Amino acid sequence: MMRRILKYMVIPVVIYLSSCADLLDVIPKHNLVGQNAIVDKTTAINALRGVYSYFQLSNNGYTIAHWANGAYLGGLCTNEIRYGFDNSLRQFTLSPVGTNVINALPPLYNAAYCIVNAANNVIYHTNLLNNISEEDKIEIIGEARFMRGYGLLTIMKNYSHFWNIDSPYGPIIRETPTTLETLYVPRSSIRDGYEFIIEDFRAAVKDSHDEQISVFRANRHVAKGFLAETLLMRGDNGDAAEALVLLEELTNQALSPFRLGTSFATLFNAANDYKNGGETMLAQGRLNAETIETYSTRTSSTLYAGYSKAIASALYCIHQSPDHYNELLVEDARYPYTWNNITFTSTTGVEKTDMTFIKMWRPEIQCPSFYMRLAQCYVMKAEALYFTGATVDQVIEPLNTLRARAGCELLVAADYPNTPTGKSLLRKAIVNEYVLECGIENSCEWYAMVRLKDEHGNRFVQYFNIYYTEEVENAMCLLIPDVDIVANKGIVIQNPFAPTQLIQ
Q1: Fewest CB atoms within 10 A around its CB: which of 20, 332, 375, 395?
Q2: 3-state DSSP helix/strand/coil % of the chain, to nearest 5
Q3: pTM score of the predicted model
Q4: Number of domains making up the chain
């Protein structure tokens, strides 16, 4: 069990002070504290582990947002837990002020920049050490650069116009420990944001450790997966080819520490949740006292309780309109192992039965949160193959690997002729596989729906979310919490929002 500490962190607008159990060492607030805290290899490693603490936030925090936001924007879920915020996501009607934003947005925004700043402290102060080996220094900094890239990618995915490389609405890039003197920094462009994140991930692939210490820690192979995803999201010249090299390595058993599960039916058994050498590349679980209490009573609608309709008054459940997601599910052999009914008796003596997202729902504690599984790399490999000019047989091969282990009907190359319509159908098959294999895990399906288009140039999100139109293009990401915009005195600009939206 890790020791209890206090963590001090500056984020882009104000200085936040928080305390969190089960961390390893001081995450410094400014250079002087960092200089005192990171003085040798042991304290550098402890501070590096402490960066991961920001995954473990309260029930409105980081873990829920990384999967739920994309599921709502993509139209896969309906109803809400987060104060109506979820329906605002699904309908692209977020406003920059109001209770929804105040309650639902800051935890993710703040946590992502806490990750960035904590990683910057490790990078900066470890680099100054002269009492550790160069090999150890490079490895520690390499993993810290992954975490900084991951934090900035979270901002890119959630608060930036990630779909438009020419957009000025990128993340705030912070590459040194934040101080009062460096507090006010303008947003970068999307192009510059992607370049910075990609360079961090490239450094992590090159320098971080090779072995899988645990599913709770990144290594060079995890960095390969996130680098490949970021390259596909950017979609610039040569990005698909670079991504393909990485994905070929990750799906090669001789080069990768990860292995696909043999059966989708047993993949999400609790015994597999945190197993090394399996399919899970990076994950977190909920281990704090609040979650333990949630699962001992089974009456709360917070966080993972939201996976189940059976136990909450505010519910996460499959969206019923349009029918595309439901039609895909019903025809797919993975359906009963993704959503299914559960029955139990609550502490009040009431027997409840209803639909539950059983990929992640566990009746006790430690519900997993999958930041990336190897299966996602197979789908990304198909996408990278498509955009590097591979044959249809080559593109569908990794998709069929996943479909075969689930007992699904295999894709046939003849169904995707070399015509505009046939190519569009092939891209649609890739998006569908993101949805069916990885949907509502880490929002990767949402980013695929946005970046991939049909033969008419329309984003595939239109097939899943009835509220999506070209008029809401500016509303496909979250809004920066308005308190941060005000505090930055005009230096940080807000994302535009759809013209049909009204201030709540």
Answers
A1: 20
A2: 50, 10, 40
A3: 0.88
A4: 2
